Amino acid sequence: MVPYGYTAFIIDVFVRSIVGWKVSNRMNIDMVMAALNQAIADRNNPKDVIHRSDRGVQYLSIRYTDKMADSGVITFVGTRVIHMIMHSTIGYVSPFEFEKQYYDRLNESGKVA
Questions:
Q1: Which domain does 103 fall in, by range?
Q2: Farthest CA pair distance, the chain
Q3: Domains in the chain: how many in total?
Q4: Which of 39, 76, 102, 113 has a Cα at 20 to 30 A from 50?
């Protein structure tokens, strides 16, 4: 049997760096809690930051969500936040808006059939 490894990352997307991580042979709440605790400590208990995760049960656990609430972290689960995140590399608009503007410009120039 091939062993599996899992990694939880907490990424600061504005500085493009990993601020919390944990590797484990089990994907469970302890693994993601370790990554979250490292990120919170690394960022000196930041307030009003956004945390986006998938719908994995470990990210929806009471321990995890309570820790984020106690730390002042704003949570989003799933893909709805993707439309809201602003990126400096694309002019501080959401990826959704950037793509829409791109295709609108193509349509105006007649390059899209």
A1: 82-113
A2: 56
A3: 1
A4: 102
- pLDDT, one tens digit per residue, over 40-95 is 998 888 776 777 777 677 877 888 888 888 888 877 776 554 545 555 666 667 66
Tokens of 42: 């690394």
Name residue 97's amino acid: E
Per residue in 19-31, pLDDT tens?
899 999 988 899 9
d(CA 82, CA 97): 11
Q: Contact at 8 Å (CB) between 35 and 7?
A: no
Residue indicated by tokens 């493009």: 16
Element (H, E) at 97: helix 95-109
The verdict on residue 104 lying in a domain is yes
Flag whether the pTM goes above 0.70: no
Cβ neighbors of 100 (< 8 A, separation 6 or more) are none
Does 103 fall in a domain?
A: yes
Give a yes or no: residue 27 inside a domain: no
- Helix, strand or coil, per DSSP, at residue 16: coil
Rounded distance, CA 52 to CA 76, Å? 5
